[in-house]
Amino acid sequence: MRVQKDVSLKAYNTFGVTVRTPLFAEVKTSLELQAVLKDMRFNDAFILGGGSNVLFLDQLSKPVIKVSISGIRVIEEDDHIAIVSVGAGVVWHDLVMWCVANNLGGIENLSLIPGLVGAAPIQNIGAYGVELRDVFHNAIGIGRLDGASKIFTAQDCAFGYRDSVFKNELKDRYVITTIRLALTKKNHELHLAYGALQDTLAQQKVEQPTIADVARAVTRIRRSKLPDPEKLGNAGSFFKNPIVKTKKLQNLMLEYPEMPSYTIDENFSKIPAGWLIEQAGFKGKISGKVGMHAKQALVLVNHGGASGKELWSHAQEVMKQVHSAFGIELEPEVNLIN
Ligand SMILES: Cc1cc2nc3c(=O)[nH]c(=O)nc-3n(C[C@H](O)[C@H](O)[C@H](O)COP(=O)(O)OP(=O)(O)OC[C@H]3O[C@@H](n4cnc5c(N)ncnc54)[C@H](O)[C@@H]3O)c2cc1C
């Protein structure tokens, strides 16, 4: 393991923000991770995956540990299900492609989500009607204080919408080294409820889609809608879609009958944050070096050379205007790092 001093994190965050860390270690095995966790200099280190869900607000005073543990293998299987064990440093989309190539179903709707496998349980990644929790078997984490390894079941992880125990009670307490997924070997259950997915499959004249067709369709839709971080710095959806009481939604609908919403249960509904941001006039509008993306208003973008503070200040302005127009508090999905 190599420890480096005064390292730029520009290439390690998809916003492309220029910040430096005083100390940087990249670990390739659990043993290396345990060794670095024992090193007092790394006590309050920031744990970094692919940097696609973080906004560095300022120069980091903390060290950084980048988790690059590799490996994908089937560790258990029967006629129907395979349990696949994956190292935290594997690129998430590489895992999806590996599963499709090996005819293992369950994560094809999560194609092209940037980042590494170790971060997937942190916010219970999701897209096109599927979330990590739907296929999650368990994960191994190493305790940051005692270096001991612990297995987390789905129940332990307390997954919610872009949420888990690792963002709450166990925040900064464990480093994920491995996750295990339960994937189907045959009779795959396809999730095709999203209109865009059905439309794309129809355009491609696919009548009986396979998991490979679904992965291809999702990839196509995402490429057409979301900015490529290599070309335009961003971290995907910057805000969560707000969940409001049904009574509040009914009152809002009197004023905005065209407001889209999704029923969660009889008491709560979800409103697309992108719609609220668009109504507040931010879609495609550039303010200095930053703005909300022209094709998807939920995506905060760095148009070149913006600092973390400039990006966050724009996000706060969006939150303020949405609140004053609709009385709804937007909550960042992206992790803000000081
Ligand atoms: C263009 C674009 C589209 C996106 N679309 C989606 C989407 O559809 N759905 C979705 O859910 N997300 C989406 N995201 C967000 C992002 O891809 C996911 O949240 C992803 O899981 C982040 O992975 P990462 O490795 O980059 O994590 P990082 O950004 O490096 O880290 C995110 C958080 O996880 C912690 N962390 C990272 N690795 C570990 C570990 N091994 N152990 C413990 N903690 C760890 C970090 O400390 C940090 O708090 C998108 C992002 C972009 C740029």
Summarize it.
This protein has eight helices and 20 strands.
Topology overview:
Elements: E1 2-8, E2 20-27, H1 30-38, E3 46-48, E4 54-56, E5 64-67, E6 72-77, E7 81-87, H2 92-101, E8 126-127, E9 130-131, E10 136-143, E11 149-153, H3 154-157, E12 174-184, H4 195-203, H5 211-225, E13 233-237, E14 243-245, H6 246-255, E15 262-263, E16 268-270, H7 273-279, E17 286-287, E18 290-292, E19 299-302, H8 308-326, E20 335-337
Parallel strand pairs: 2-5, 3-5, 4-20
Antiparallel strand pairs: 1-2, 6-7, 7-12, 8-9, 10-11, 10-12, 13-19, 14-16, 15-16, 17-18, 18-19
Helix pairs in contact: 4-5
Question: If you had to describe this structure to a student in words, what would you say it looks like?
Answer:
- The protein is α+β, with helices and mostly antiparallel strands and about 350 residues long.
- The protein is built from eight helices and 20 strands.
- The protein has helices spanning about 30-40, 90-100, 155, 195-205, 210-225, 245-255, 275-280, 310-325; strands at about 1-10, 20-25, 45-50, 55, 65, 70-75, 80-85, 125, 130, 135-145, 150-155, 175-185, 235, 245, 260-265, 270, 285, 290, 300, 335.
- The chain has a five-stranded antiparallel β-sheet. It has a four-stranded mixed β-sheet with strand order 1-2-5-3.
- Helix 4 (about 195-205) crosses helix 5 (about 210-225).
- It is globular, with a radius of gyration of 20 Å.
- Flavin-adenine dinucleotide binds next to strand 3, strand 8, strand 12 and strand 13.
